[in-house]
Amino acid sequence: MTASPSKKPTVVLVHGAWADASNWRSVIPLLQKRGVPVVAVQNPTSSLLDDVEATRHVLNEIDGPVVLAGHSWGGTVITEAGDDPKVKALVFVAAFAPDVGQSTGDQVAAYPAPPALADVSSDRSGRYRMSVNGWVNAVAQDLPEQDARLLAATQPPLGADTFSDKVSRAAWMDRKNWYVISTEDQAVSVELQRELAKKLNARTIELKAGHMSLLSQPEAIASAILEAVAEASAA
Questions:
Q1: What is the radius of gyration, based on Cα positions, of the chain?
Q2: Distance between CA 171 and CA 143 in Å, rounded?
Q3: 127 Cβ contact partners less than 8 Å away, ≥ 6 residues apart
Q4: What gap in Å lies between CA 69 and CA 62, rounded to an integer?
């Protein structure tokens, strides 16, 4: 899991809610073909603390610089976990990026609710799940339906209080940031994404894509990450 002795950073990928590390399966080979070391974190999505600990465990195993990328809820995770001296750049993909003392839920509540949230409900244990309809029509609407149904079938539940957990550090404040906006997103407010990209002073890319751009347009996501890798390598 350790990075190579060269100056080339290791890319660490952090997935979103109702997801796992396999969501990065189309991006990873594109990075590996360019000789970039890659590790995808398998977060439990049980709480911000748990996900940050899982990400920090991966970071601790890496020697050398890191480019940390997060999709959706993963943006909140890298905001907290990215406050590590080896992290040289952050890449947000249709992602949240709370400020210190702010939660993901605070950012969601500040904008009109996107359609996907109407398809979220609690299960018998009090954790949250996205319905099949939500995956097919609002989260992964630009993927083949069978792919969206597979994402629905393999989703882990989201801890009940996860979106209310507040960030205590904001790594984006003093690092180079990239932000990939999905203009057809129905899971995370597009207006929020644009406001965050501006607030983070991020290199910004807009894709005509739904929320799962890392699967529908992996080349564009890999390109943004590779740009961050190039800059971190030169630093």
A1: 16
A2: 32
A3: 157, 158, 159, 160
A4: 15
SS3 62: coil
Distance separating alpha carbons of residues 5 and 188, to the nearest angstrom: 38
**Dihedral through CA 130, CA 166, CA 78, CA 180, nearest 10?**
60
Rounded-to-integer distance, Cα 3 and Cα 134, Å: 38
Return the bridge partners of 207, or none. 182
Strand pairing category for 128-130 and 120-122: antiparallel
CB 97 within 8 A of CB 79: yes
The answer to pTM > 0.85 is yes
How do residues 176-199 score in pLDDT, each as one tens digit? 999 999 999 999 999 999 999 999
pLDDT tens per residue across span 144-171: 999 999 999 999 999 999 999 999 999 9
pLDDT in tens, 15-58: 999 999 999 999 999 999 999 999 999 999 999 999 999 999 99
